[in-house]
Amino acid sequence: METETQIEHETHPGILAAAVQAQLAGARAAGLDCRQLLLDAEINPTLLEEPDNRIPRERVALLLRREWDLLADESGGFLARPWLPGTFAMMGHACISCPNLRRALLRSGRFVSMVSDDLQIKLVEDGEEARLLIHHGNDRHLPNQIFVESLALIWLRFFSWLIDRTILLERVHLAFPPPDYNEDYSDMFPCRHYFHQRETCLVFSTRYLQMPLVRDEQQLAEFLGRAPECLLAQYKSDNSYTGRVRRMLQNQGGIENLSLDDVAARLYTSPQTLRRRLKEEGNSWQDIKDSVRRDMAVYQLKKQETAVAEIAERLGFSEPSAFNRAFKKWTGLAPGAYREKFRGP
């Protein structure tokens, strides 16, 4: 039987070289020959010299497996106490018997505390909002942003798979500045992103926490047999209202030319029903529109010579100062500073 959610199998542009380079920090610190690691994974080492190059997902999966095997550490050398081979699988087996997502996330946090000295994963509920906090003490003093982001991504995708539903994020907080590969954030975390925060956490609706786990041991074994490649792919609901609204806005020439009423009509529903559906998915029309605006702004600042004032107008802001305030809230940087940082002189 087909389910409404699935791991992506369509053509994927690959993973940015900047992210792959960052992932090798633990291997470099351990003294591994990273050039040979890349060659073993059939990756030309020169590809990593240009941050915007794309590495095929299956090659990155092979690289990670090779790195973990040589280090005997599934954390890739980032944790003070290595995650011996099979640690993640044991966590999965520990969680799969839980009755619902809440219990599974709580159990995963307890498991991580048992096998790690400098890593904590904690579920916090506040009204209708749930936060999954990820704190890495970084006892090894490595550049650990990619590690924390990867853990957040793995937890999001694995537990979405366990309940066979996409856990739609309301926002993600990052205790880091925007990375060199942040143009992929829309695929990694399709929601609002806030950098320079006190803590790293995924924020989503508590309605997901009551959802039952629907996988069995055999399915888990098959899933783990495909790891880590299956965790590098987005687990998503192709038919979610959030996804469909987002795609419509992305394909629209001028984002302000498409109203909620227009989108509702294209989806053969009423504006009131569409608002309700989006709320059920933990989103809103304004949140999605802001997310698409942010992504368009980031792309134009990094890839084009368009003036900031013109970008603001294209995105429907009444004046450049309003765009500047919004962009700084999204990324922690003003548009001009962001362009200078990521494009150079």
UniProtKB/TrEMBL annotation:
Family annotation (PROSITE patterns)? HTH_ARAC_FAMILY_2 (PS01124)
Pfam short name (any one): Arabinose_bd
Q: Where is the HTH araC/xylS-type domain?
A: 243-341
Q: Which GO terms describe its molecular function?
A: DNA-binding transcription factor activity; transcription cis-regulatory region binding
Record keywords: Transmembrane helix included?
A: no
Origin: domain of life: Bacteria
Assigned GO CC terms: cytosol
Alphabetical UniProt keywords: DNA-binding, Transcription, Transcription regulation
Q: Which InterPro entries does this one have?
A: AraC-type_N, Homeodomain-like_sf, HTH_AraC, Tscrpt_reg_AraC-type_HTH
PANTHER family recorded for this chain? HTH-TYPE TRANSCRIPTIONAL REGULATOR GADX (PTHR47894), HTH-TYPE TRANSCRIPTIONAL REGULATOR VQSM (PTHR47894:SF1)
Protein's name in the database: AraC-like DNA-binding protein
